[in-house]
Amino acid sequence: xxxxxxxxxxxxxxxxxxxxxxxxxxxxxxxxxxxxxxxxxxxxxxxxxxxxxxxxxxxxxxxxxxxxxxxxxxxxxxxxxxxxxxxxxxxxxxxxxxxxxxxxxxxxxxxxxxxxxxxxxxxxxxxxxxxxxxxxxxxxxxxxxxxxxxxxxxxxxxxxxxxxxxxxxxxxxxxxxxxxxxxxxxxxxxxxxxxxxxxxxxxxxxxxxxxxxxxxxxxxxxxxxxxxxxxxxxxxxxxxxxxxxxxxxxxxxxxxxxxxxxxxxxxxxxxxxxxxxxxxxxxxxxxxxxxxxxxxxxxxxxxxxxxxxxxxxxxxxxxxxxxxxxxxxxxxxxxxxxxxxxxxxxxxxxxxxxxxxxxxxxxxxxxxxxxxxxxxxxxxxxxxxxxxxxxxxxxxxxxxxxxxxxxxxxxxxxxxxxxxxxxxxxxxxxxxxxxxxxxxxxxxxxxxxxxxxxxxxxxxxxxxxxxxxxxxxxxxxxxxxxxxxxxxxxxxxxxxxxxxxxxxxxxxxxxxxxxxxxxxxxxxxxxxxxxxxxxxxxxxxxxxxxxxxxxxxxxxxxxxxxxxxxxxxxxxxxxxxxxxxxxxxxxxxxxxxxxxxxxxxxxxxxxxxxxxxxxxxxxxxxxxxxxxxxxxxxxxxxxxxxxxxxxxxxxxxxxxxxxxxxxxxxxxxxxxxxxxxxxxxxxxxxxxxxxxxxxxxxxxxxxxxxxxxxxxxxxxxxxxxxxxxxxxxxxxxxxxxxxxxxxxxxxxxxxxxxxxxxxxxxxxxxxxxxxxxxxxxxxxxxxxxxxxxxxxxxxxxxxxxxxxxxxxxxxxxxxxxxxxxxxxxxxxxxxxxxxxxxxxxxxxxxxxxxxxxxxxxxxxxxxxxxxxxxxxxxxxxxxxxxxxxxxxxxxxxxxxxxxxxxxxxxxxxxxxxxxxxxxxxxxxxxxxxxxxxxxxxxxxxxxxxxxxx
Amino acid sequence: xxxxxxxxxxxxxxxxxxxxxxxxxxxxxxxxxxxxxxxxxxxxxxxxxxxxxxxxxxxxxxxxxxxxxxxxxxxxxxxxxxxxxxxxxxxxxxxxxxxxxxxxxxxxxxxxxxxxxxxxxxxxxxxxxxxxxxxxxxxxxxxxxxxxxxxxxxxxxxxxxxxxxxxxxxxxxxxxxxxxxxxxxxxxxxxxxxxxxxxxxxxxxxxxxxxxxxxxxxxxxxxxxxxxxxxxxxxxxxxxxxxxxxxxxxxxxxxxxxxxxxxxxxxxxxxxxxxxxxxxxxxxxxxxxxxxxxxxxxxxxxxxxxxxxxxxxxxxxxxxxxxxxxxxxxxxxxxxxxxxxxxxxxxxxxxxxxxxxxxxxxxxxxxxxxxxxxxxxxxxxxxxxxxxxxxxxxxxxxxxxxxxxxxxxxxxxxxxxxxxxxxxxxxxxxxxxxxxxxxxxxxxxxxxxxxxxxxxxxxxxxxxxxxxxxxxxxxxxxxxxxxxxxxxxxxxxxxxxxxxxxxxxxxxxxxxxxxxxxxxxxxxxxxxxxxxxxxxxxxxxxxxxxxxxxxxxxxxxxxxxxxxxxxxxxxxxxxxxxxxxxxxxxxxxxxxxxxxxxxxxxxxxxxxxxxxxxxxxxxxxxxxxxxxxxxxxxxxxxxxxxxxxxxxxxxxxxxxxxxxxxxxxxxxxxxxxxxxxxxxxxxxxxxxxxxxxxxxxxxxxxxxxxxxxxxxxxxxxxxxxxxxxxxxxxxxxxxxxxxxxxxxxxxxxxxxxxxxxxxxxxxxxxxxxxxxxxxxxxxxxxxxxxxxxxxxxxxxxxxxxxxxxxxxxxxxxxxxxxxxxxxxxxxxxxxxxxxxxxxxxxxxxxxxxxxxxxxxxxxxxxxxxxxxxxxxxxxxxxxxxxxxxxxxxxxxxxxxxxxxxxxxxxxxxxxxxxxxxxxxxxxxxxxxxxxxxxxxxxxxxxxxxxxxx
Lengths: 949, 949
Prior knowledge:
The structure is a homodimer.
Chain A: H1 20-23, E1 33-36, E2 43-46, H2 52-69, E3 75-76, E4 83-89, H3 94-101, E5 117-123, E6 131-137, H4 140-153, E7 173-175, E8 180-183, E9 189-194, H5 200-209, H6 214-226, E10 231-233, H7 241-244, H8 246-255, E11 258-259, H9 271-277, H10 288-301, E12 309-310, H11 327-344, E13 354-358, H12 361-367, E14 377-381, E15 403-408, H13 426-438, E16 444-450, H14 456-467, H15 480-489, H16 494-510, H17 528-549, H18 552-587, H19 593-616, E17 647-649, E18 660-664, E19 670-671, H20 674-677, E20 681-682, E21 686-687, E22 694-700, E23 706-712, E24 717-719, E25 723-726, E26 729-736, E27 744-753, E28 760-768, E29 776-778, E30 783-787, E31 792-794, E32 800-806, E33 813-819, E34 833-840, E35 844-852, E36 865-870, E37 876-879, H21 886-895, E38 898-906, E39 910-918, E40 924-931, E41 947-948
Parallel strand pairs in A: 2-3, 2-4, 4-6, 9-10, 9-16, 10-11, 12-13, 13-14, 14-15, 15-16, 20-28, 21-28, 29-34
Antiparallel strand pairs in A: 1-7, 5-6, 5-8, 18-19, 18-22, 22-26, 23-25, 23-27, 24-26, 27-28, 29-41, 30-40, 31-34, 32-33, 33-40, 34-39, 35-38, 35-40, 36-37, 36-39
GO molecular function, one term (chains A, B): hydrolase activity
InterPro entries (chains A, B): GH115, GH115_C, GH115_sf, Hex-like_dom2
Protein name (chains A, B): Glycosyl hydrolase 115 family protein
């Protein structure tokens, strides 16, 4: 086939109600618009008076079509063409005016709207034109977005430049005659904040462009426009956008990007500009005149440019003001800033877009009563870790300036910076930004993307969702990674690639790589670190298959977008995993200690090798881009370089000797170290439905092999072997002969003898219970562990409902309490609930651990609560945020979880129903654990309990 | 001078009332007996019928005199000599009989006594004999001891063979005509147990003698006789004395050594003989006939030999019997054993010496009522760590068989074996064995000396004290090491050598090297590990001086007896000290981590090099003797070899970077690791009488140097420097400007900035109090620390008294509660007390920590108590052993201390008198600490508090 269904694969990505059928003909019928045909091609028409930004987009379209088809279409003021693409924005296109005037084009669907565009085929619209494809914008950006929509549709990824995504080559491009589409954004300002820019982005910029100049920004702006964004906070660490290169601001305005300055840089002036030009201290209380003048100059400079003015003031370098929370002073500052704006622009200050960022302590000013005029947009922020702190109340939603959200994919600060690769799952972004949309924080969505480069996927999702928040539901957001993979790499491997993307991001969402330490994942319990290692290894193997299968043209892009983040994630995990084993084996004095030290070195070097490979792609196209140090964090700040951890090193006796040690599953303790402590080695208790095999590990502390002998004190204790030779280590598996046991708790010993006198004695306990009743989750190994998504949902209604969010949380399955924005549960009102049928052999007061998303109480006066009910007991309301300490918050963002514990009273063993009642929306439940006495410390918690069918 | 005052230096060692003046003439007058003169020499006479053991001793005397003077005296039945030495034992010497009969010799002082001897010059005793020097024994050993007394007096150390102590050469030897001496032992059986014999002793024996045969034992027996011992338990691990070499038992009997078998080997049969010849199990309940016959053979074999029969039975290999504590069975066993003895020897079983060792669980049998006949000696034991468990009650003292003590200088067992070098201070041996003497456990003193070789000093002391327990008082025992050093190396360096000996033994007495671990001595508080390091370093320097000064002939001996144990002790300490620093620096991620790892390796190798040097002395004369593994203990059993500890290893970033860390004195915490923990760095509080300087340590975690800046929040905080360059680490000393401070507690901060954003903040607190009143120990740094020996003693009386024991305890100064054996304090009776005047700035309920010797309650029904009184409050009685747990005992023997804590109530600040009242004898107090809130963990406790004069 010569032509291709160019839009097909992208449907899911497109946020407008345009289906493939609207655009395409499988067989180009006579009526199809021929963009590039077998023997013909369209011309592109653009008015002379068209805005430069639109012209630039049109030129890019020509270039994109050429990349796809090899054909360079003519672009100009010539309409003489059988097939004509007409590009223009209303009021800036004589041709569009004429078509409208002649009744040939109806633009009522976009006219007067913000950034709307319309794409439509017209028959015989102009003399000599058989067919036209009109791309009309309600305004400049409307037209630009229309153009880039076509660009994307024919197979040019927005990331073609920024991630080397190859253009999909096609010989022909047809558009169905019936194609007709109208689209416009739902969030007004959609943008990114280039932040945390050194060393990675900055060194790359310096090498490629010399500085943060227009040659650099043109690529950023184009990316934004292709992603249908319109707003930006520029890099500001050691940079001053408008001052570094006077072309920067002009270029932004020309291309259609509304510039702002970051939340703490008021009045379109960069923080660094004060260093360069400011006189006196950055203290408004003592240096008002100089600062006032400084701001005046900012307003003046941007008088002709489309801008969104940040108001307010913080200390320099994004620190709180030294004045502290001086509300009076800040109110004066805002008043002065608005005076400047009104002096510079117009008396109708409402015409000048302004934003007040309620970031960090500034939110406190607001909560304590400080207000800004109604026309200023209130920019609420997350907690820097993706959890929105506050959304508009019903009252606030009436404000004319509306509200927005400042979100983070990257952050420099406590409890621990995350500045490297992507760590934010799509489901989490969706869940939080969906709330923002629901609570009408829809004026500005801006996200801190750090260095930009490694955040391609979440940035793409965030901006698409900003364009149309309703395009994604809890259910459909989970398909995004596959759709995105398909756009970048074609449909063939999209499912596998999505598995890899989802996999590494789920891992990083559990805990950011910067915060993963040797003791994060348990090497003792639930084989936790081992399971995570296996997960990542399986992904790495899949990655290798995909990498091998993908054509060479995809390799660079694939490495950047998929392979590198996965493999580097794995390297950081394995480095820490092996460090934990190195330390434990070192403590136990094992001969294997150095093997793990070598593994730590291997994974450290592996990480270096991977970033080296990244930097060498395409002759160094992305050199420096992965140079952000990420190994060796000890507190909030990143280490000055990736730092190899201190490892434990073992040296054997010069003359080989043998020296037995014995460890048991689930314990750091080992024989003989336990003897002086007076502590027994003991296997975790065996239960009928629990783990049926547990190991004793007999290890050598020295180089000479030895023979061990193992014996049991009772016949019901079974050993996989009773003697063997130990070189380095050897596991004996212990199991229970349940048939030989009566009901009740039994106790026995395994004795292990090896080198020298004495030996290890290991306690074995087995509790034989009756059979459990079917249809229940059953207690075993001292706990019941439940995935929220395994609940049965009852009582959902139109105003409140529990809903699963696939892809969310540690296990990629959470359940969210959702409700209408102003829903407040009324006492005695039936509430939707989750129900779990349980079967316990124990009775008593037990801890119930609830693991929830670390969401915040974003509605003043309403908490984040749910209610826990057991059987027919009255449900007990639980305030998830009852611990409001900084410490608890820090723990929650490090864990990516808020852990809450309550007590439940199982008055008797047997069957029970555990119910979780909806109280406040915003609660997202991941996991529940009933600790009946055997719960062991771990990061991910025990695996889900057995459900007996 | 041609002649020398040969006895002078030894007076202190000799236990008989023989002074130099009795023996010597400075100028040989006409009346002096000439042993070896300028031109003449004596003959030695011994009767033909003299016992072979006496003859052997006489031959050794000839050989000893030849070593000293180069002159070989004639020995035989010829009396024709102007100067004649007459050697004999009563009843076995015709010459002595004749002299007695002729009234020329009065032996009434020794006649009929056990092992007594008499040395006396006689004028013209026989025809042609101008002068005779008579050495007469009341019995065989009496004569032998007399001979070896002369040997020792002329300058032959008992250790000449076993420690290569050079004989002091002299050209002449004279004995004053008035010389007249009588001596006899106070303890009947005095001996050693060769135990713990592999790998060191056994491999040496195998290489030198092939086996534990008579060629080996002859040296052991001679040593024992020279030390005036008479009893021995032979090596038994893989040996059977009487079976390995049939000459062994015959030789012992001939030389005069009474053989026994160890506490768990009854009836003169070695444990290992059962393995060789026993039929059936070692279970008397099931295999009586075979075991009975086995024992009969033992009695029969030793029928003609002087033996001390061990009765009773334990399991094999020194384990409890598998029967458990079956008293009935054990009584049957003893009855059967006595039947065998009476069948073999005589109906009067009381003529056959027998001992029942009340070791470990066997003591329990006794305490629960089991008894053996009155003529059997009860051998009480220590707790294997030098603390006697039990001494005879007044009732038990009436038993005809009497009692003895089995003591340890070496032990294989829990909580931790000690099998290497000497760890038992003389003062401790004296204190415990003095009690044994006081409580009339005087029938047997036997000590486990392990491999024998490295225990020269304590063995010498133990056996000398066994000969005459009253020769040493609390005060004079402290001079022993100097006297001993003088005997081995001459008087010139004796004081220095004694300092070295006392120093290393005090160190090992604090904690045995086997039990020293990285965290034993605090690297954080009181500069503890640093002070110990300095102590040992000073001793090592002194050792080097002495070694250099000593003539070559002494070098081998000096290395064995002095240099090696000191330097190897130092190596073990420094290995652990540097391991602690390695771990701390590793945890803190310091660039210096590897320096300490290298130090650990250095000291590990140093230890190997020292034992290598020992093994190479005199062409390998002591090869294997120091091969006992002693580094790498993790529980009671020794490691299979000296094992290099696992160390922390650091690898810097490939491209040098700088990375600041900050630590403070007294804390493991360091910046920035403290930030995520939410803990402040803080210096210990400053007080007026406390430490006046404390440091902040600014360190580099990487290779590139950096500059730091430090500032204070208040002018009263003084810094030694406020900026500087840090290569590896740099200390800033913080002090307080007290003049600038008002009374009360003040708080401020030191801020340190170095690499990157942020920096460390260190809390500084200073409490200014009024001046303290003179004449008191003053509270500072949150405690008062008192040496018991700094107390003033009041109220001592004839029946009970406090007395200092120099050389005892951690600091070499303890005070002992002493009393008559059956003293029991009566309520309201005034008791002797120790008094400390204190000055406190604090008031409240404080912990008072008492550090006491780990002595046990050796008298049934009487505890180990003292009473604590504050000012005029009623003294509160404190039971030192109130915690009777195995755990508490283990801790006490590991620490060499029993730590007891009580509460005292200081109702107000100011002056107080703290008093410790005597209640039970046996209490030995070392140190007292009043914790007013600032006491930090350490091993040795804080240094003694300031006494204001």
